[in-house]
Amino acid sequence: LEANAAAGSGDPGSVQFLWIPSGPGWFCSQNQQLVETRKTSVHITLVLYGNNKSCLIIFYKLFVTSCWRPTFISRFLKPLTEWTQLGSGSDVSVVLNDSDPVGDPVLCVPGYGQTGPQARSPGYDSIASAVSGMMHITGPEDGEPVRPGVAMTDLATGLYAHGAVMAALLHRQKTGRGSHIDCNLLSAQVSCLSHIAANYLNAGKEAKRWGTAHESIVPYQGFRTRDGHLVLAAANDRQFVTVCQVLELQDLAADPNYRTNQLRVQNRKQLLQILSQRFLQQNSADWLRRFQGSGVPVGPINSIQEVFSEPQVKHNGLIQEMEHPTAGRIAVPGPAVRFSSFPLSGPTPPPLIGQHTVQVLRDTLSYSDDVIKELLESRAVAQNEVS
């Protein structure tokens, strides 16, 4: 179950709830992109109109009494109890109690955290990527900071949140108690700084941008070929000797300036100049054939069209097609994980906001048609009519 508002961006007004129709607890992502497959959408308004508290009753029933037992996910800048003007004794405020949220995990995904000096600041992927230092280390060596090509901070936060929800569900199974989870964009990205953070925290070493190269391994980067680019990773001295053999540059392997990785790092500029000139002499496909079976990791820098033409991508089932209610036939990337014990269900299209409101009220909460009509007219809920 997800209360949807951009990472602490403003008044939720109309709130979107997304349900996944299987399992005891689920993680839902933040927006209504084409990747929002396998979900059901209910539209509930949590900002009260006059004395109409029907929306809060629906919210309470969905969250507390539904046999689906969902995990609640909030991306509001302020706690839900503030948006809904609820007192500490209300049913819904009890549902969202930090210490024991009625046995179900409550996941909050703000930009900076639930507490602290920036707790009320709106957060988006690009901002968190900048504040966390991710942009500082991304980009060409002599160029400006660069935003990663996809929203890596959002994605990393989602993966952290997924693991946190699974742990909270296990905790609930063992203790019967829920957990309040704070999984924010800033913390997720800073924790992903990995060895970059360790180098600074332990050695005081400031990071810099390296483009496709690796700071402490040479050669480990992208090279331009006659018709494109490829990436090569010689992670040890033996692989470097193999690289020299494939490139027909055996003299490099015997050169005392390049005999160890430490020496190759010290003489990086001269070595890379020689390698770069050699790679320019043939096409990417020719080099890939030469390196095949060598034991040296190498791969092309693919365009997106080339990605989805890759035989391995197709074999892994990473293209899934389905019918969307308004967009027609669409395709989305498939899941990255497979299980040996059970097959994954077929994909269903991402729902329109509020597409399943009436269905859930009728089938899950057993509301009568008259009650549903009254709720729609009072704007406590909304139904998206698929044309």
From TrEMBL:
PANTHER family: SUCCINATE--HYDROXYMETHYLGLUTARATE COA-TRANSFERASE. Pfam families: CoA_transf_3. GO terms for molecular function: succinate-hydroxymethylglutarate CoA-transferase activity. This is Succinyl-CoA:glutarate-CoA transferase. The keyword RNA-binding does not apply. It comes from the Eukaryota. Keywords: Transferase. Belongs to the CoA-transferase III family. GO terms for cellular component: mitochondrion.
